[in-house]
Amino acid sequence: MAKPKNLILSSTVFERVVHWVLAGSCLFLFLTGFGLMFHSLSFIANFFPGGFYVMKLLHNIDGIIFGLAFLFALVAWGKDTLYFDEEDKKWFRVMGGYLWEVEKVPEAGKFNAGQKLFFMTLFLFWFIMMGTGIFMWFPIFPPELTRWLYALHALGTVVLGGFLVIHFYLGTYGNPGTFQVMGHGFVTKGWAKKHRAKWLRDVEAGRRSV
Amino acid sequence: MEEKVMLIDVSKCTACRGCQVACKQWNRLPAEKTQQRGTHQNPPDLTPTTWNLIRYTELPTKNGEMRWLFRKDNCMHCTDPACQRACPVPGCIFKTAEGAIVIDQEKCIGCEYCVNVCPFKIPQFDPATKKVYKCTLCWDRISQGQIPACAKTCAPGAVTFGAKDKMIAQAYARAKTLGGDATVYGDKFVQGTHVVYVLPEKVRMYEKMVVNPSIPVSVYLWKDFLKPLSVLAIGAALVGTFFHYIIKGPKRPEEGGE
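Predict the joint structure of the above. Result:
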């Protein structure tokens, strides 16, 4: 896509594809996982020819897809997210201006401190969900250990379930103008100034491309 | 139909293994390749096609002699079964009016959750069929007023079957008669099992007998805490973001940005 006038590229094709693969596989994991965890949602299994068996198999295979896609996510966003600096501490002190009125929100780079924390948590639970899931699929450990993996996998559902909703909110209604970051990838300069002023300066000075 | 209990009085067991054979016969379970381990216990453990096994324990006594302890091992048919709690498929593991816990292999998806949560390590996964199998308390017989095949065939009367209260009373009477370390095993665990033992020796003397069986803590954590909590977390996030939107409002970029 040619660069539209007055817009600025905020995410590359690579980033957008990785995000869509993560988003799609994650939602499918939630759908099938909830179908397995709640008997009241067992109707979800009816969508699959072969019922529960196929649903669980696809859940497992999709887990691998999500797991691999996350490796690309680390390549795409790891260097911009897996650290905190002084500015981030200030950002947390005012909660990024999300919860109460704040005179000035500390300027963020490509990702603000909240987004960094989100990605770090996702990284941790990616490890937990892959680590538990693979040995739920292939239970090679003694039962005394394997049943703790079930509990840990459910803990992941608790944390990631809450995160999913908040992530969705902040990427759409909560921050107008943001959703197109995962659409065509372009944002207005006003948006960039508001959300990632430091990054905007870097891009305009040619210190980074995206 | 009233609740029933299978009473296994191991003091009367002669380890003839008639029950093992009768179980295979009634449930049409094939014989299997086994291995010599220097014991009469055969096969070495429960398998997908051996739902009932006589375990042999050699117990040296103080005066240098050897005693044999025999124990018939099969599903305990818990009143509060961990397997059913863990099973993801509705109706796959079900409970009959008599108290039998049965796996419906038509519905089983071979996830092995039941295998890993059972406090007695009873359910057996068959990699060939990708299904889990275990004793059904002959639910197809007892629902027709018959007694389980193993009880039917037991010559010395070590395995009996009948009304729950009657069998438990019998068990305690028998333990009292035996005296010494004799105990009743089963009625106090997992809200009462539908298989109850009379054990002349201490529980820990018998092979693979769990001293204080209960639903594992991890299973409660998983199914009774984290599972409902996941709904709560998603619900709280939905409510929270809704109120954030209507009270604090979205974060709008400055209008007219170039």
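Residues 14-170 of chain A form a domain with the Fumarate Reductase Cytochrome B subunit fold (CATH 1.20.950.20).
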